């Protein structure tokens, strides 16, 4: 057995981490100077660190542990599947029971005619698949010029070359020569920060109509697809105005543009229904999935594809694309068990009917805090915007993210994982979180907000830009 035994002392682990481990989305020198917090176990909604502290995980890992930690059924299924068939591919006219069962189950759960699944190892890979699939689709239908994919600024679609190109994160585009050709970006429906004097309803329409303008600019014959998250996650939990999605749907339908809903976060109960597309009444041609699909217990992602797209792709000869781990049997078996528990224990239903509304009631009250300009929520994903001037929806004079980082650090010190995106604070707890755990989450958040306000006031940072 090469399991890591009862671990080394924290300082030794931190030193080895600094010496050999490169962290994603991290300033390496800065982290190595202070040392990573070492997480050793987890159960339910709580993480345990190497010093024994119990941390409430308000982010469900990276938005993925929908089922909560510590479900031994998933471990048992993984072990059993490894004994029976640890690996086989599906490239060369073979298939296996776990991948077949998972594809069937996803077809049942997904709305409309989303009945076919192409598997990947992650959300990024699935979006790379989507780029190739939608371009191949139009080529197969005799319209090879329909290649450009329209996406959104501040969207997040992963970190591969394709995924990061679809994403609209300027900091990511700045490194490594992105975006790839034939991807363009329109503005996001972020009313609080960008809506100015318009009402949210007007603003939602305005931002949706940018899609129509972009299609006109590029020419309808050159546009393959529009991709968006039903609710932007990594961008800061941007909940769109109610007017936004109906108008986007109308435009995609009117111009024969495929609609890709990136449900990597919003899938599997996060917004209170199985998919964000159901919450927001969207009819996507393709859905990207990952994260909550396995509750993060094993890496797996995929694209759920509608009948008409699958028929075209299946009818166009070899699709020259796939991953060694597409439909990995262990990942598929674990995902299936995760979906079984989410369903049979009524976790998605309870979240939609009880705990998400409870969280909403508590979370929206944070808007009364002197440091909070707006509270927003969709199901079990929520954000607040920090501001020095509520009425003006002002940003801080300090560099963006300074106050948010401070607040995150206060939260972490108070044993709550709440993430910051710039000067927004966001949460997406495991869907199994109970009402009393929600109370604890809110208590720790308020305490951290109070401490942040006191500290930035003392340091003269409570100043509008
Ligand atoms: C996390 C995420 C991805 C990327 O998934 P990975 O598994 O990290 O590759 C893609 N889209 C959205 C909306 C995400 O939140």
From TrEMBL:
Its cofactor is pyridoxal 5'-phosphate. It comes from the Bacteria. Gene3D superfamilies: Aspartate Aminotransferase, domain 1, Type I PLP-dependent aspartate aminotransferase-like (Major domain). One of its GO terms (molecular function) is pyridoxal phosphate binding. Keywords: Aminotransferase, Pyridoxal phosphate, Transferase. InterPro entries: Aminotrans_3 (IPR005814), Aminotrans_3_PPA_site (IPR049704), PyrdxlP-dep_Trfase (IPR015424), PyrdxlP-dep_Trfase_major (IPR015421), PyrdxlP-dep_Trfase_small (IPR015422). Pfam families: Aminotran_3. Belongs to the class-III pyridoxal-phosphate-dependent aminotransferase family. This is Aminotransferase class III-fold pyridoxal phosphate-dependent enzyme. The lineage of its organism: Bacteria, Pseudomonadati, Pseudomonadota, Alphaproteobacteria, Rhodobacterales.
């Amino acid at each position: 057995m090469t399991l890591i035994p009862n671990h080394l002392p924290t300082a030794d682990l931190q030193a080895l981490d600094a010496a050999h481990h490169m962290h994603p989305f991290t300033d390496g020198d800065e982290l190595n100077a202070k040392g990573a917090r070492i997480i050793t176990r987890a159960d339910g909604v709580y993480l345990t660190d190497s010093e024994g502290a119990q941390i409430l995980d308000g982010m469900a890992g990276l938005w993925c542990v929908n089922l909560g930690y510590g479900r031994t059924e998933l471990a048992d299924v993984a072990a059993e599947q490894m004994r029976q068939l640890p690996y086989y591919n599906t490239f060369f006219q073979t298939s296996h029971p776990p991948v077949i069962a998972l594809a069937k189950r996803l077809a049942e759960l997904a709305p409309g005619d989303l009945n076919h699944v192409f598997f990947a190892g992650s959300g990024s890979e699935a979006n790379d698949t989507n780029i190739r699939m939608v371009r191949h689709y139009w080529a197969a239908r005799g319209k090879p010029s329909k290649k450009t994919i329209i996406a959104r600024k501040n969207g997040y679609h992963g970190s591969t070359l394709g995924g990061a190109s679809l994403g609209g994160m300027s900091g990511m585009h700045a490194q490594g020569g992105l975006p790839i050709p034939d991807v363009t970006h329109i503005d996001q429906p972020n009313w609080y920060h960008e809506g100015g004097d318009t009402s949210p309803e007007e603003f939602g329409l305005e931002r949706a109509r940018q899609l129509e303008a972009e299609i006109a600019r590029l020419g309808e014959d050159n546009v393959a697809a529009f991709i968006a998250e039903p609710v932007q996650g990594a961008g800061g939990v941007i909940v769109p105005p109610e007017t936004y999605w109906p108008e986007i749907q109308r435009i995609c339908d009117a111009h024969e543009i495929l609609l890709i809903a990136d449900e990597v976060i919003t899938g599997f109960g996060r917004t209170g229904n199985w998919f964000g597309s159901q919450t927001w009444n969207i009819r996507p041609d393709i859905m990207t999935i990952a994260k909550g699909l396995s509750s993060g217990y094993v890496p797996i992602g995929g694209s759920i594809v509608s009948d008409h797209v699958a028929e075209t792709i299946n009818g166009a000869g070899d699709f020259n694309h796939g991953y060694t781990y597409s439909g990995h049997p262990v990942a598929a078996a674990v995902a299936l068990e995760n979906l079984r528990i989410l369903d049979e224990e009524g976790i998605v239903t309870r979240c939609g009917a009880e705990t998400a509304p409870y969280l909403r009631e508590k979370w929206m009250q944070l808007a009364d805090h002197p440091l909070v300009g707006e509270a927003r929520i969709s199901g079990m994903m929520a954000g607040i915007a920090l501001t020095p001037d509520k009425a003006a929806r002002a940003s801080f004079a300090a560099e963006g993210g300074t106050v948010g980082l401070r607040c995150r650090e206060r939260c972490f010190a108070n044993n709550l994982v709440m993430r910051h995106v710039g000067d927004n604070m966001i949460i997406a707890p495991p869907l199994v979180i109970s009402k009393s755990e929600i109370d604890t989450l809110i208590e720790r958040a308020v305490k951290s907000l109070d401490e942040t306000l006191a500290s930035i006031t003392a340091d003269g940072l409570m100043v509008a830009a």
